[in-house]
Fold this protein.
Amino acid sequence: MKVYNNLTRKLEDFAPLTGREVTIYSCGPTVYDHSHIGHARSAITWDLLYRHLKHRGYAVKWARNITNVDDKIVKRAGELGISPDQLSRKFTYEFWADMTALNVSWPDYEPRATDYIAEMISFIEDLIASGFAYTAGGDVYFRVAKHKAYGQLKGLSLDKLREGVARVDENKLKEDQLDFALWKSFSTETDAFDSPWGKGRPGWHLECSTMIESLFGATIDIHAGGDDLIFPHHENECAQSECHSSKPLAKYWMHNGMVMINGAKMSKSENNFFTIKDVLAKYKANTVRYFCLSTHYKKQINFTDEALAAAETGFDKLLKSIAGVEAKADDKALIAKFETAMDADLNSPQALALLFETGSSSASTVAYLLAVLGFDLNATGSNTDNSAALTATMDLILDLRADARAKKDFATGDKIRDQLTKAGITIKDYRDKPSTWELA
C-alpha cells in the first residue's frame, strides 16, 4: 500500500511504526455552528482510510478531536446569551447527528479539548523549561526559530514564512512575528482557565499536540486533515510536539483537497455556504459519499447541483445492478483489483469504476465492496423523509408567502409562518435575500 506523504511530498510505501497496528489522528470540528459540506468531505475521506486499513487487516486506532474551547465559541455563545459549554455541547450533538446520517464510522477516541487542560499546562511548562517557549504579558509563545525543521510541511524557509506575516499587524509581545501562542490570557472571559500565567485559554495548535501525546505517545502513524490546515495549524503542531518529545509527531501527513461551490470558495458572505443538513435535505447520504469518492481525496472538488444529480444517477444505477443480492466476498479477482486501486493512495475513483465494469456474477462482491467504501446499502432515502417532495412543497409555500407580503397582506404571511412553526418548520426572513426554512 502506498500513500502520499505531505511531509516528504512523495508517494511512499505505507509501513506502520509497529507491525500491523496503525494510529491515526484527524482534526475534527470547532463546535460553534453547524458543520458544512467541507467537513463532510474531510470526514468521509478519513472514514474511507479507516475502513480500507481495517479491510486490509490492520489493527487501527483512530482519534478525531472536538475543539470545544475557542474564541469563536466564546463569541457565538455571548451573542446567543448561553455559556460556551452549552454552545459547544449543542453543536457537538449536531455534528454527531451529521456523521451518523453520512454513515461515517465512530472513531475509537473523540477527545474534547477541555478535558486536557491540565496536560496542556504541563506541556507548556516543559517547553518553557527547555527554552522553546517564553512568557510575555500573561501570554506564552513558542519560539519557532528553535525548531530547526520549521516550515517542513509548508516547504518554505523561515525567511519566506516571515515575508508572509510582514504585512500583518505587529504583535509587540513576540520575539519573532512567526512565534505563536501556546496560552492566551483572558482574565475577564467566562471561559477562562487557571494557569501559572493567570487565567486564559490554550492555543488551538497546542490542543491537538497534547491530545495526540496523551492518547498515543510521541509519534503516530498518520496525521490527517484538510489542505487548509497544513499551515499554520499542522506546522505549529509539528514544531511544538517535536521540540517537546525530540521525536517526529507523525510518520505520514495526509491532507484532503478543499470543496468549492460552483467554482468559488465557500463563504457565508457570498451566500454560497451549505451545511451538511442543507445538503442532506436535498440529496441522499449515499449520493454525497459517491460524489466525494468520485474524485481523488487530494484533489479539489467542485460542489454543484449538476454534479450531485450525476452522482445520484450513477449510484442508483450501481444499486439497481445489485438489487436483492446478499453482500459476499466471493469474487477474489474483483477484490484483488479493488484492493490494488485503493492501495494506490486511496484511489476511490478507480475503485468505483471497477464496480461498474463487473457482470452480474460479481453482484454480491460489488455489494460487499460498496460496504467497504462506507455506503449504507440498507438506506432507502435521505435522512429527511420524502426530502425532495418536502423541498418542492416548501419552495411553493415560501413563494406564496412572499407574494402575500409583497401585497402587504402581512396577516396571511404571519399565518403561514405560525402554522409552519407549529408543524416543526422554522422560517427565517432576511432584508436582502429570500426567506429560508429548516426543520426544527
